[in-house]
Amino acid sequence: MNERSQAKQASPRPLEPVQSSTRATAHFKTREVVELLDLSRRQLQYWAKTGLIEPSARTPGGHHRYSFADLVALKATKRLIDAGVSVQKIRRSVRALQDLFPQVDRPLGELVLVATGDVVLVFRDDAVFEVISGQEWVFAVADFEREVAAYRSHEDKRERTKTGKDSTPAKPGPRGARRTKEEWSQTG
To answer: Same domain for 54 and 24?
Structure first.
């Protein structure tokens, strides 16, 4: 059995055939996808063969046809790769997303993904999760910023009241240095 027939048998979902010319206009040929997304034909073939992103349809002659949703998934994949995420990590991320969100058929096309270094984040329902671990990764930064500003404002007022003047705290000394009793009382 050759690689092509193995790839067809290993396909996780059946590909729908393109049946009419009106339906064919809703799909993009491989050449069009290559031009639109600045991908190589070889990349598209490899991704389809390995099941990363498969075309939604095939012609009766076996040619790949890509839907707009496929284009979105392809563009998301390309952006992740351009951001430095390996194809293997993208595969693991897709599997993890399918486990986290079983109702999502095509994670790369339906979810908002962001790469920060080698970490892939997914934005879903006002929360951000690290894809592979599923842990919430980001908290409400604006709320936290307000908390910090209120804390600093309170601390500044307390310091001015205590010393009777505006002062900035002294820089910490070298490791192992001992503070005086007066220094300890000023740090609160």
So the answer is: yes
